[in-house]
Amino acid sequence: GGGGEVFSLAKNRIEMCRGCGGCKSCPITDDLKKFPMDGTPDAYLFVAPIYMGHIPGVLKNFLDRIDDFISSFKIKDKVINLILVGKWPIKNERGRIYSNEEPIENINAFFDYYAAIGECRFNYVDFFQSKNIPATTFVYDEKEYAEKLDSAIAKIKF
Question: The pTM is what?
Fold first, then answer.
């Protein structure tokens, strides 16, 4: 595959959708104009942490703002790839263990629905366990991490 461009939500100022219905000529002036909304990329890759059992608010806000881009079929037949990052499993103070299986299913359903609107395809690539979170009970060693990353990259579709 070729190279790509990175559009970091953390490094760009994306304001919340106002729900005004003026999507075709959105009145909001922010960094969203930097995102390639002409449909020229062959594929899109979202890498997102799991927060509170779902995608982070900033990604949901971004998806709300690009709704017209999606629903006007500008990415028809393109692929939206998703890699999730989080803790797995999580053990609370009472000893109950929570996993991210249900949040991953919910996030996949959300993206499946989103892809259906734009007549594009959704590809869940993989889940990566964060090794920067102290509560994590399992951490990849460098070789395992590199192998998992190579495997995930091989699953990205165009």
Answer: 0.73
